[in-house]
Amino acid sequence: MNQQQNAQRPNVILLTDDEHRWDFYNGGVSDDLETPTIDRLKQNGVTFPNAISNCPVCMPTRFTWLTGLYGSQSPAGPRNAKDWPLGHPTLAHALQRAGYSTALIGKLHAYRGYSTKEHSVMKTETHERGFDDVFSSCAAAASVKGSPYYNYLKSRGLDDFITLKKRKKNAHEKLAGDAPSAKAPEDRYDNFICREAIRWLQEDRTSEKPFFLHASFTKPHFPLDPPEPFFSKYNPEDMPPPAGVDDPERIKYWQQKRAVYCGLVEYTDRCMGQLLDVVEEQGLMENTIIIFTSDHGDMMGDHDMYFKLKPYDGSVRTPTVIYDPASQRDGGTVLNDMVEAVDIPATILEACSDEHLQEAMPCSPGRSFLQYVRGDKDAHRQWAYSELGHLCEDGNPWRLARTPEWKYVFAPKGDMLFNMMDDPFETKNLIDDESQLKKINHMRGLILERMGSLPVPPATLECNTDPDDPKSLKTWFYKGIINNA
Question: What local confidence, expressed as pLDDT, does residue 395 receive?
Answer without folding.
Answer: 65
